[in-house]
Amino acid sequence: MGEVEVVVAHHERTTLRVGDVFLKIDADQERADVEVEAMSMAPIPTPDVLWRKPPVLALAALKGAALSRLGQPSTSSSAAWEAAGAAARTLHNAPLPPWPGRSTDEFATELDHECEWLAVNDVLPGDVITRNRRIAETALRPWTPAFVHGDLQVAHVFVDQDEITGVLDWSEACQGDALFDLALLTLGHQEHLGDVAAGYGTEVDLDVIRAWWSMKNLRAIRWLVEHGFDPSPEVALLTSVL
């Protein structure tokens, strides 16, 4: 038995690693149900489910390492980023999962609430909030629903020798905007947006991707603060927007 490593822990769920096994403890069993079913439906590599005894889900460790980390320089090659884009395209072309995602109205309402909280609590300068909110609103347009991962951040995509070995954390999978996934994948790593787009293999609207970057960061800060995480990377990205 190896040491127990706390991978992530907050009020909603905790993930532990013991040797080559990840143990996910989730208080929301509906969310855990979505994760298991989404992995079974996804046409791209996912972790093997070893066993499940609610509220615990045991998953096999993936080969390789995360594509990158938010707030850290990427050491992955352009080929690895292209492979991530190709995997996203394969997922988005798959049959839709049964769970609807947020509507544009729901995103708009959440954006209102988060921007108000950021202003009232003096988390960001008013001009930074206004500028990013204006950019974020570009994402609030009709889209053709796709099978999206919903949390396709770089830490959830594992690669080995420029090949995708698996994608983690499917609890947010749903019908949604494909560009939302691409935005999360390239958040904080805009220098690899061209690589991801090349791997994706079809034209993408860069303005909408930039809009989802701002939307994601504006929506994330309060959750991070309330769950004991440092929102510095998100704050830095918002303040860097011109």
From TrEMBL:
Q: Record's InterPro entries? A: AGP_Transferase, Aminoglycoside_PTrfase, Kinase-like_dom_sf
Question: What region holds the Aminoglycoside phosphotransferase domain?
Answer: 36-201
Question: What protein name does the entry list?
Answer: Phosphotransferase
